[in-house]
Amino acid sequence: MGEIYCRRSLVRVSWGRTALPVRTTEFPKRPPRFGPAEIEALTAALSKNELWYWQKESIVASTMTKYAEKFGAHRAVATSSGTASLHVAIAAARMPAGSEVITTPITDIGTINAILYQNLIPVFADVDPDTAMPRPEHITAAITDRTRGVVAVHLTGCPMEIEDIASICSRAGLALIEDCAQALGATYRGKSVGLFGQYGCYSLNDQKHITSGEGGFVLTHTDYDYFLAHNYADKFYDRYGRNVRLQALAPNYRMSELDGAMAAAQLPKLDGIIRKRRALGDRLNGELSKIRGIIPQQKPPGAECSYFFYLFRIDPRIISCSRDAFVRGLAREGIPARGAYVREPIYRSHYFLQKSFFPGVWPAEVVAGRSYDYKSVSLPGTEEAVASGIILDLHEGFEDSDIDDYIAAIDLVAKNNR
């Protein structure tokens, strides 16, 4: 006997014919993000007839003051992207070339590239498959006498156990840099992520909660860290007259006045965006936790997520099909899902298996005086997280009815594969 699905009541009714999919319409796109505020801000920037940021009454400088105040930092440095923010912070941490830097194998490649740019050696910590992020004990297990830093990534807008990780780094004398590219608006124990390490790095590209098109910023705690990060973002020119011109190799990661204007106009919208995403995401967490065989992304006590996207996984001890088969089952129910955030752990990519970061030779290995064999890396939690993880879109344009359909479809596919 076939079935037909009654969407709003979350039941399927027998009618003696083939069932309709749970979802028969497209999910909403993000609502309009730009309007009079952005137009006014951009017009004002253009009217100055100069888009270079280092000028009197700089829009970029004013915007960074607002961002530092918003997130509770001492000062903020503007950059051209989230990857630029990470590179600036890692450079400013001044770890010796050839040093090891611990990070996660489930992240955007920009996290890793920022480490490689400084001729540092990425060392991958395992992750808790239920969070897809390292826990403090994973960081501790990866520390060696060559470790000089940790790049902690708050994946999907879910905070790591960052307070404990910061304590580990402090005791071991390690630089801690937070990658908050996906975590605008996320907090841990009432404090914004990005404030627990020496530097907190953010992205403002078009996919993020708020955007300047491309751009980013680095949160700092002291004038020393601010000036150093600022120099690394601007070719190490001596903009502040501190007699430090060209004292280190530094790229050009400057933000233009147009980007600064956009970032300023977008900032007041962040709280509303986060409230909506958090309400929807937390509801989805609660409902999916009731479905046998489904594991929502776990968050540490005291963490408040900002849901850049939604991540859950199937429990292979209960669900009989593969992750990819589960995704195909969701597609048949009208739910566009996809596999885990990375197709494979980064240490299994050709990039690392062949160590093709630089042509011919990897200078970091030469300086370190030792070779690193990523082919031998095997991290069980990471493998499980990647093999069983599923991503759903989630943003402020969704309504409770859209979450209803997610829940109904996941419940149905899970029941059919237990």
TrEMBL record:
Coiled coil start-end: none
Gene Ontology terms for molecular function: pyridoxal phosphate binding; transaminase activity
SUPFAM superfamilies, per the entry: PLP-dependent transferases
Positions bearing N6-(pyridoxal phosphate)lysine: 208
InterPro entries, A to Z: DegT/StrS_aminotransferase (IPR000653), PyrdxlP-dep_Trfase (IPR015424), PyrdxlP-dep_Trfase_major (IPR015421), PyrdxlP-dep_Trfase_small (IPR015422)
Keywords: Aminotransferase, Plasmid, Pyridoxal phosphate, Transferase
Domain of life: Bacteria
Active site, UniProt feature: 208
Gene Ontology BP annotations: polysaccharide biosynthetic process
Similarity field: Belongs to the DegT/DnrJ/EryC1 family.
Protein name: DegT/DnrJ/EryC1/StrS family aminotransferase
Organism: Sinorhizobium mexicanum
Lineage of the species this protein comes from: Bacteria, Pseudomonadati, Pseudomonadota, Alphaproteobacteria, Hyphomicrobiales
